[in-house]
Amino acid sequence: MAQTLDGSQFPQIVRFTLGGTDVATKVNIPHTATTATVKFETNDGKLAMTGTDGGAVAAAYIICAGDTTNEFSLMDGIRASQGVTAFYVASATGSTVCSVMIEG
Description:
Layout: E1 3-4, E2 12-17, E3 25-28, E4 35-40, E5 45-48, E6 62-64, E7 69-73, E8 86-91, E9 97-103
Parallel strand pairs: 1-3
Antiparallel strand pairs: 2-9, 3-8, 4-7, 4-9, 5-6, 5-8
């Protein structure tokens, strides 16, 4: 099920449990977000920029080691968002907890 951070405050955090093995969960973020940080608890996770909420994780993803923070910038170098409004997370192990923080 998709998760939404609305940017009503920065930083903003959401924490949720992923639904199944390699099932993508869409994380909606505001275009004003400049940085996102993702952490998968205990198990490794997958981060993709394309996909379908509830579908299989996209073939183009990066692996994020469990219990580590993975930060990425949404900036274009001139203090403006690149317009990224969503990304997808998944885990090879069902019931993995995922935390996402955005900054603006």
